[in-house]
Each structure stands twice: as C-alpha cells, then as structure tokens.
C-alpha cells in the first residue's frame, strides 16, 4: 500500500524509517477519527474559507469561442493558494503526535506561508527552509513568513531552489526527529506523504464535482491543473478518477527550452529514478545525477513529480503536457484582463493549456484549477510583462 | 539467523582477524573522485598503508541529504571532476592490482539504479569490490538489490540507527552480510566533539539481535572516541574527518598520518 503502481515507496535513511512508520500509523488513525476530521473541516471552513467557488469564466469562454471554462478558485483561500488545505491537516496531525516544532520546505513560498500561518494559529514553532534563489524571487513571501513568526532559513547549496530546500529540511528532520514534525508541502517524499497530502487536497475535486453538477447538470469533459510536485492537480483529479469520461490534464513547466536544465517537464525529459524518498519520474543525467531545472514559476521548478501522477500517466488515465514560461506569462495577462483574476504563475500554466485547447473543443466543459493568486508574483510580472 | 555466504569475503575475513586480535578496526570513508579519481587511488593506498581495515568509497550524488557540510563539499568537488560510477569501479580494479584492502561501495540509490542493479553487481564484483551500502535503501525496499548482490557474493551492509526498533534491527541483521553499520546518533554525517550517548544503547540492542560484526560511524573523529569504543564493537568508521583532511591538505601522507594518529591514540 506504499506504492502507486510501480511508483512511490519509502527511500530514506534508516534513522527516519521508524519515525515515518509512526507518522503513517498516526495518520491512518487520525483519518478514521471523527473528532480529527471534524476539527479539520471546521478550520477549512471557518479559517481557510472553504468551500471555494467554481467561477464561470464567461468572457474568456466567449473570447476563445470553444469550450465552456470554469475556474476552481483555490486562489481565494486564506494565504492565497491551495497549500493551506494540506497545512491545516498536517499541523493538526503534528499536534496530535505531540510534536511542537514544525519544519517545512518552500519553493514559491506559498507552502511556507501556509505552514507559518497554521503554526501561528495552533501555537507551534515553525522553521521554513527556502532556496536563496527562491528567496530573492519571492521576497514578499519571505517577509510574510517572518511576520507570522517563522524562522526562514536560506539554503545556498545546489541550485538554491526547492529541491535543495527539501534536502536541508530532511537534514534537520533526521537530526531533530524526536521533537520535530516535517510538514512536507507536496505529493512527494516517502510514503505516507504522497497519500496523506493527496487526501488533504482531495476536497478540491470533491467540491468541484458537486459544483459543476449543480451548475451544468453534468460532469466536465476536461480538468486542467499545473503540476510541480502535483498536489493541486491530484487534489482536483482524485474525486474524478472513477468518472471515466472525464479527461485529466496536468501541465508541467516547459521553461525556456527542451534541453536538460531549461525546464521542469519530468514526463518530457525525465526517467524513473529515486529522489528524496520516492520512486518516480525524475530529470536526471546518464549517471543518475539529478538535473537542475528552470521555470519562471518557483512552485513548478522541481526535478521530480508526485508518484501518483507517474501511475496515472502510465495507466493513460491522465495526460501531461508542458507550457513555456512565455505562454504562462501571456495566460496570466489574458486571465487578468478577461476575468479580473490574477493567477499565480504556477496556475497560469494551467490557464495557458485551457487557452490552447479551448478553441477546438466546442461544446466541451473545462474546469481549470486556479491553485493560487498572483500577488506574490507581481515583481516578476512587472519585469516580464513590462508593467 | 542468516545463511552463510558461499565463500568468506575479504570483509568477513578481516573482521574475523580483528575479533581474534581484540583490536578496534578502522573503516575509512572517503568520497571517490574528491578531488579526482587518480588522487583517490593514492589516498586508498595510503589508507591501506596506514592500517585501515576497510575502505568505504563514497559515490558522489547531487543530493546527499544524509550528509553534513564537509561531505557535501567533497561530493561537489568529485562531481565537478566528472566522477561517475564506471570510473569508480575502474579505480577499484586498479587498487586491486596492488592491495587486498576490503572495499565497500557506499552510495545513494539513484546512481546505482540508473546504472542497473544487475550490471552494477557484475561490474563491482569483477572489479574486486567486496560490499555495498546504499544510504537511502531500507530493508523493506532492498529485495532486488540484495538478490543481485548475493548472486555475485557482494556483501550487503545496512545501517542501524538509534531510532530503529528491535524488530527493525533483527530485519537489518537478516539482510546484512560482512558487518552492520551502526549510526551513532540521529543526524547527518559530520565530526563531533563528544561521542553520542545514543550509541552504546544501540550497540547493546544490536548485540542482542545479531552475531555480525558492528562498525559504528557518524561523528567519530578523535582518539578518545576510539578509546571508548575499543572492546565494545569491532570497528569505528571515520568519514568527515578524513574528507576534511583531504580538503585541507590534499595529501596522501597527511591523510595516512591522521589515520595513524587516530588508531594509535595520539
């Protein structure tokens, strides 16, 4: 049960094996505990702002002249992205396990901000590891984390991005494992993280499914979400997996070119390997060294993809495409001007794919996951779009 | 509890001699290719000369999440020099022309996975390597790797940690050949002032689980650490302190002198 088809598993140093077994045990117990679920639901509702709306994108739909597009509005959640769903769940689990110190990694800063927020809410100590490169391109989120009382630790090793922040968080965890809970931010890492993080985001698809049935009286034809580790995508997809008529599209970061190092499209240039605890598609060289990646969006800038996505792709249950930096930036502008919504650069990749395929999909119904809002990206948008 | 290997490996042979003599063995870790593979061969010969009992050759990996800063820097130097697994096995072959020092290939999983377990087992055995330890492979995920290693009589060495339950220690013993590597403390690799208080209880629990020799590492860097361990376990593993010595001096003579100092308690 620790695998998604051939993928997943638990590849960590022995020191972490017993703690991860404990975590799995605690999570499976919490999952069955109605009091835990009730507290989670209450915080998602009254603190985070669930349910999020499913907004019809009327002007975008009209402009593209094809598919009818709906937007799942995770950008409206407290802290500005879907990440808070998982943070509330895991922070409650940390408290339940008696761990008072929470550590996390962050790429774009959204997971770090959400973790810092929930730690403030629950009175937990919070340390966030963040690559120096990401700290400079997401400086507003660094300030937010600090304001919320978190200790933000710069990571200067390797590519100075998300991957290196995870390495450093794991070094902290293996050192302070008795007192510390590692609040991993995506459907990555050793089992049970990919399963647990998916469960906490599953609410996105559960809501969207009910909302689209209410609005249109039928299931959607296509779901579109961006995929870094893949948490918002699996969150949207999971409740629709049994609905075989619903096509699911994950959008990876195509960056600025096809060469290794220029993008983060694991299904385009990657192959199966093990990184940071899990067996999945990884961007790597011929010697099994992990490749550097590039994306304009820090949250997609990671060389491995969640193992459940690898399984869905092998089973042809989901399709994965890549979108360039340039197309994502353009899509961000388009959505802002047609719908009055500034999506995060991560989510802009999903919007770009909807824009690409909608004109030839007359009569179809799309749901696009707007996983976060673009406030954090304003510096980059200012520069890249000459605002 | 475990079947005997079909022949006595260089590692088992060395540990049998250590047990007979009552001496504390010395397992030396260095990162292969730091600062280049030619130099690593000189370091290996110097370590043999200085009385190391087992050589652990680290395969550099881009994401060494179990390592502290000293070994991280060694890995970066090795990767900059273009070190890969094929080159490391060629180095082992060269070493075998003049030395019978037991060699353990010490790696994260992904470089071995990419090379292929079966191909790795064949090439490592024919190069003259004696054992393999994969840092991020627990007994639960070890089956294909153990099977391929058994086929060519490569010893499989697993880590045991202070956090490992007794049930896990028994499983670790069942999967291990040659010796067990006891991780002296929760944490990453790196020299420390004092020996961890977590180590001696782990050794006691391991002794109850297995008759295999025990080598302890993580943080061992001083003669007084060695003195505490003498008589309690078969060998001490020293890694970061050697990599630091290489970083500072890049000298086989200085490395050998450092090892002699540790072994002789000066």
Secondary structure elements and pairings:
The complex is a heterodimer of chains A (387) and B (266).
Chain A: E1 3-4, E2 7-8, H1 14-32, H2 34-48, E3 54-56, H3 58-64, E4 68-73, H4 83-96, E5 101-106, H5 110-122, E6 125-131, H6 132-137, H7 139-147, E7 151-155, H8 162-175, E8 180-182, H9 193-201, H10 203-216, E9 222-226, H11 231-237, E10 247-255, H12 266-269, E11 271-275, E12 278-282, H13 307-314, E13 318-324, H14 325-339, H15 345-357, E14 365-370, H16 378-384
Parallel strand pairs in A: 4-14, 5-6, 5-8, 6-7, 9-10, 9-14, 10-13
Antiparallel strand pairs in A: 1-2, 3-4, 11-12
Helix pairs in contact in A: 2-4, 3-14, 4-5, 4-9, 5-7, 9-11, 10-11, 14-15
Chain B: H1 10-21, E1 25-31, H2 37-49, E2 54-58, H3 69-80, H4 85-96, E3 103-107, H5 109-115, H6 117-127, E4 131-134, H7 143-151, E5 155-156, E6 159-160, H8 166-175, E7 180-183, H9 199-209, E8 214-217, H10 223-229, E9 235-238, H11 240-249, H12 252-264
Parallel strand pairs in B: 1-2, 1-9, 2-3, 3-4, 4-5, 6-7, 7-8, 8-9
Helix pairs in contact in B: 2-4, 2-12, 4-6, 6-7, 11-12
């Amino acid at each position: 049960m620790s695998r998604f088809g051939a993928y997943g598993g638990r590849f960590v140093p022995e020191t972490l094996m017993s703690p991860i077994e404990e975590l799995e045990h605690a999570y499976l117990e919490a999952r069955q505990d109605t009091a835990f679920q009730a507290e989670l639901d209450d915080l998602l509702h009254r603190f985070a702002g669930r349910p999020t709306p499913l907004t019809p994108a009327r002007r975008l739909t009209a402009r593209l002249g094809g598919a009818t597009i709906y937007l799942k509005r995770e950008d409206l959640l407290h802290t500005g992205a879907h990440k808070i769903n998982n943070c509330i769940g895991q922070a409650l689990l940390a408290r339940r396990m008696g761990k008072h110190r929470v550590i996390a990694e962050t790429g774009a800063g959204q997971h770090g901000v959400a973790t810092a927020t929930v730690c403030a809410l629950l009175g937990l100590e919070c340390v966030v590891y963040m690559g120096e490169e990401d700290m400079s391109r997401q400086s507003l989120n660094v300030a937010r984390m600090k304001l919320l009382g978190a200790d933000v630790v710069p990571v200067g090793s390797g590519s100075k991005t998300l991957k290196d922040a995870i390495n450093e968080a794991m070094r902290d965890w293996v050192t302070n494992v008795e007192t510390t809970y590692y609040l991993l931010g995506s459907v990555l890492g050793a089992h049970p993280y990919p399963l647990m993080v998916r469960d906490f985001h599953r609410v996105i698809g559960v809501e969207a499914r009910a909302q689209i049935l209410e609005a249109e009286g039928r299931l959607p034809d296509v779901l579109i979400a961006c995929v870094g580790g893949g948490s918002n995508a699996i969150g949207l997809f999971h409740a629709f997996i049994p609905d075989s008529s619903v096509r699911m599209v994950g959008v990876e970061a195509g960056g600025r070119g096809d060469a290794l190092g220029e993008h983060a499209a694991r299904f385009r240039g990657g192959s199966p390997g093990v990184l940071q605890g899990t067996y999945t598609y990884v961007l790597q060289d011929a010697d099994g060294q992990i490749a550097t990646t590039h994306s304009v969006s820090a949250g997609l800038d990671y060389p491995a993809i969640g193992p459940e996505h690898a399984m869905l792709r092998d089973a042809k249950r989901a399709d994965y495409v890549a979108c360039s930096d340039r197309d994502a930036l353009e899509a961000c502008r388009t959505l802002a001007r047609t719908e009055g919504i500034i999506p995060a650069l991560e989510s802009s990749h999903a919007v770009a794919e909807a824009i690409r395929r909608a004109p030839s999909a007359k009569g179809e119904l799309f749901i696009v996951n707007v996983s976060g809002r673009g406030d954090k990206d304003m510096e980059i948008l200012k520069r890249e779009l000459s605002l | 509890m475990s079947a005997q290997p079909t022949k006595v490996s260089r590692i088992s042979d060395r540990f049998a001699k250590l047990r007979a003599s009552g001496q504390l063995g010395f397992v030396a870790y260095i990162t292969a290719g730091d600062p280049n593979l030619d130099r690593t061969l000189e370091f290996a010969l110097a370590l043999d000369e200085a009385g190391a009992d087992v050589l652990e050759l680290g395969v550099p990996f881009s994401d060494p999440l179990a390592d502290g800063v000293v070994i991280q820097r060694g890995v970066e130097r090795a990767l900059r020099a273009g070190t890969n697994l094929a080159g490391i096995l060629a180095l082992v072959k060269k070493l075998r022309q003049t030395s019978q020092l037991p060699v353990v290939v010490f790696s994260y999983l992904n470089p071995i996975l990419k090379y292929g377990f079966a191909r790795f087992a064949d090439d490592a055995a024919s190069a003259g390597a004696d054992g393999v330890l994969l840092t991020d492979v627990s007994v639960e995920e070890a089956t294909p790797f153990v099977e391929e290693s058994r086929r060519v009589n490569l010893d499989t060495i697993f880590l045991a940690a202070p956090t490992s339950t007794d049930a896990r220690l028994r499983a670790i013993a069942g999967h291990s050949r040659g010796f067990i590597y006891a991780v002296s403390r929760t944490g990453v690799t790196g020299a420390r002032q004092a020996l961890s208080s977590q180590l001696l209880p782990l050794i006691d629990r391991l002794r109850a689980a297995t008759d295999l020799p025990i080598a302890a590492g993580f943080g061992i860097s001083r003669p007084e650490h060695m003195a505490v361990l003498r008589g309690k376990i078969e060998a001490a593993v020293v890694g970061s302190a050697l990599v630091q010595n290489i970083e500072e001096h890049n000298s086989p003579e200085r490395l050998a002198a450092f090892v002699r100092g540790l072994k002789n308690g000066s």
